[in-house]
Amino acid sequence: MAGAREALALLTPESLSSGLVTSGTAERVRREISRLGLAFDAVVCTEEVGRRKPDPAALHLGLERLGVAPREAAYVGDSPEDIEMARAAGVYSVAIPGAFPNREQLRAAGPDLFSEDLLNAVRALLGAGRSA
Questions:
Q1: Which domain covers residue 48, as residue numbers?
Q2: Staple partner for 17: which of 5, 13, 62, 66, CB 3.0–4.6 Å?
Q3: Assigned domain for 94 exists
Q4: DSSP codes joined into one string, the chain
Q5: Contact predicate 77/94, CB 8 Å
Q6: What is the rounded CA–CA span in Å between residue 27 and residue 117?
Q7: Residue range 36-90, pLDDT digits in tens
Q8: What average pLDDT does this structure show over 90-103?
Q9: In this structure, is the dihedral angle defined by the CA atoms of residues 38, 55, 101 and 29, taken in order, positive or negative?
Q10: Do the domain assignments include residue 11?
């Protein structure tokens, strides 16, 4: 996703935690994280909870691993199911259009914040004093 590396660089370990909740398999996701040289404080993959988005189980597990309350978190996603999951978990939802042709559905899902790219979304969240 464009701006991802720059956005993650704004999330310093001293101030914010970062996590990844994904429908991808652990083997593939961990391989990609390593290949890209990224780091997250928590990673939750689909097989760890046995339920897919928009069920909030994976997001709840990620928040538990981070030690963060839902009201102190933001979840960034590129699908309507991501927004539904965040809402079901009580988490601030951020929508960013991705590779899928679902822009209208993403807006219709009613995210708390809609941004054209991840870097501007993170800047908006940091400016608003939200935790990520």
A1: 18-127
A2: 66
A3: yes
A4: -TTHHHHHHHS-TTT---EEE-SS-HHHHHHHHHHHT---SEEE-GGGTS--TTSTHHHHHHHHHHT--GGG-EEEESSHHHHHHHHHHT-EEEE---SSS-HHHHHHT--SEE-SSHHHHHHHHHHTT---
A5: yes
A6: 27
A7: 888 899 999 989 998 889 999 999 999 999 999 999 999 999 999 999 999 999 9
A8: 91
A9: positive
A10: no
CATH number for the domain including 109?
A: 3.40.50.1000
Tens of pLDDT, residues 76-96: 999 999 999 999 999 999 999
Q: How far apart are the C-alpha atoms of 46 and 79, rounded to whole Å?
A: 16
From CA 25, how far away is CA 68, in angstroms rounded?
24
pTM of the model: 0.87
Nearest residue to 66 (alpha-carbon basis) of 13, 130, 1: 13
Q: Assess if residue 8 is contained within a domain.
A: no
Distance CA(44)–CA(5), nearest Å, equals 19
In a domain, 54, yes or no: yes
Within a 13 Å sphere around the CA of 127, how many CA atoms are in the beta-carbon half?
A: 7
121, 76 in Cβ contact below 8 A? yes
Least confident range from 52-56, 57-61, 121-125, 128-132: namely 128-132
